[in-house]
Amino acid sequence: MKNRLKVLRAERDWSQADLAERLEVSRQSVNAIETGKFDPSLPLAFKLARLFGMRIEEIFEDSGQ
Amino acid sequence: MSCSIKNSAQRRFVRTCWMSAGLVVLLAFFAAAAFRLWHLKGLPAYPVAVLPALPILWVLIETGRYLAAEKDEFQRNLLVQCLLGGIGGTLAVTTVWGYMEDFARAPRLDLIWVYPIFWLFVGLAWPVVYRRYR
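^ Those are the sequences you sent over. The predicted structure of the assembly is below.
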C-alpha cells in the first residue's frame, strides 16, 4: 500500500529508527511499511495517524480506489 | 524476528531455545545411560524414553507464547512465514520419503528427525522471507 510515511518522517527530520522507537516497533517494520511491502494493522495505522496528527487516509493511499 | 534481538519477548524466546537445546542433549545422554544401565523395558521405559522430547515440546509451546507476546506485528509476520516454510518443507520431505519407503524400499526415516527437519526448513525459509522485505 502506497503511503506518505517517508515524506512525513523527513518533514520532522526523523530517521526510521526514530519513528520505530516512537511506534515501539523495529526499524525493519518501519522500512517495510514505508516501502509498501507490509501493510500495518488498523491499530498500528491508527497509532501512526495519532503520531503524525493526521487521519489514516491522509497517510495511506487506498490502492483499491 | 531479526537476527539482532530487540525486545524482551525475543530475548526470552532465544534463551528458551538455547536452554532447550542443552536440556535435550543432557536428557538424551541420561536416557541412553538409563537404558544401558537398567535395561528398561515395558511401562517404566516409556517415561524415560520421553524425557528428551520434553524440552522440544517446551520450545513448541514457547514459540506460540512468543508469537502471542511479540508486539511488533511485522516481526511476528516474518516468524509466521518462516514457520509456515518449516511446516511445508517438513510435510513435503516426510511425504515424499514415506512413499519412497513404501514403494522403493528407501531407508527408514526415524520420526525423531521430523523436529530437526522442521527447524532446518524454518532456517532455510528465513533468508528467503527476509529478502522479500529488504
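Residues 38 and 63 of chain A are 14 Å apart (CA to CA). Chain A touches chain B through 13 residues (CB under 8 Å).

Shout if you want it in another format.
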